[in-house]
C-alpha cells in the first residue's frame, strides 16, 4: 500500500471504508487463484474526474493483476446482488456497499478492467482541509438501546441473519418474514401492533417493500416504517414519498439512527395532538 505525500483528509465512516477495502481485497484474491499482485494507493486528484464531481478530491485505487472482468458485465458490478461467484460464496452486496459508501460521501467509484490483465477500482472522495466537527455527526455516537418490538421483512436469508443479531443487540424483539405479503397478513391478525416495520424495498412476489409501506401508512398510521434499499437511485424518490429509508447495506449506527428518527417523529406528533386538544 502507498500513500502519496500531502494526501488531504477525507471524511467517511472508518468501519465502512475498512469493509470496502476488505471486499475489494477478497475480490482481488478470488481473481488471482494462482497468485498475483494487489496494490492499494491513495493520492490527491484534480483532473480526469468522474462526471459531476469537482476538485479537490482524494482517490483510493485498488488494483490487481487478476483475470479481469468481462466487458459485457463490467457495467453491472455495482448492482445489488449481482455476483459471478457460485451460490453460497457471496451475496453480491460487496460492490454495492462500496458504491453506496462513495455516494453518501459525495464521491463516486469507477472500475477499469481488461480480461487477462487485471482490474482497478477507484474510490473518489471529497477532500477536506480538516475533518468536520465530530459532535455534528452520528458516526461517532455510542449505540444505545432501542427497546422496540420490530418486524423485519427481508427475503435474503444471509442479509436477515446479519440484521437480526444487530437489532437484538440494540434491545429489539424481532419477528422476521421473507415476503411482504406474509408480513401484511400477519399484521391484519394482530390486536397489538409492533413499534416499527423494517423492510427491504425490492421483494419477490406481488407486493414489494414500498407497496407494503404504503399499505401500512393507510391501514396502520401509528406503525412506524423504515425501508432499506441497495439501489442508490431509489433513496431520494422514496424519501420524497415521506418514508424513512436507509442505504443497503448500512452500518448498525445508521439503522439505529433511522429507527430513532421515526420514533422521535411519533413523539412530536403525540405532543402536537395533546397541545391541540388542551
Instruction: State the CATH topology of the largest domain.
Output: Heat Shock Protein 90
Q: What's the average pLDDT?
A: 82
The CATH architecture of the largest domain can be named as 2-Layer Sandwich
Report how far apart the termini are.
65 Å
**Order of strands in the sheet with most strands:** 1-2-3-5-4
Question: How many domains make up the coordinates?
Answer: 2
Description:
The structure is a single chain. This protein is of the alpha/beta class and 278 residues long. It has two domains: 2-133, Heat Shock Protein 90 (2-Layer Sandwich); 149-277, Response regulator (Rossmann fold, 3-Layer(aba) Sandwich). It is 35% helix and 21% strand. It contains seven helices and ten strands. The protein has helices at residues 14-31, 94-104, 157-169, 180-188, 209-219, 232-239, 252-277, and strands at 2-3, 38-45, 57-64, 108-114, 118-126, 149-153, 173-177, 196-200, 224-229, 244-247. The strands form two sheets. The protein has a five-stranded mixed beta sheet with strand order 1-2-3-5-4, with helices on one face. A hairpin with a 3-residue loop joins strand 4 (108-114) and strand 5. Helix 1 packs antiparallel against helix 2 (94-104) and helix 4 runs parallel beside helix 5. The protein is elongated, with a radius of gyration of 21 Å. The protein starts with a strand and ends with a helix. 31% of the residues are buried. The model is unreliable at 81-93, 134-142 and 267-278 (pLDDT under 50).
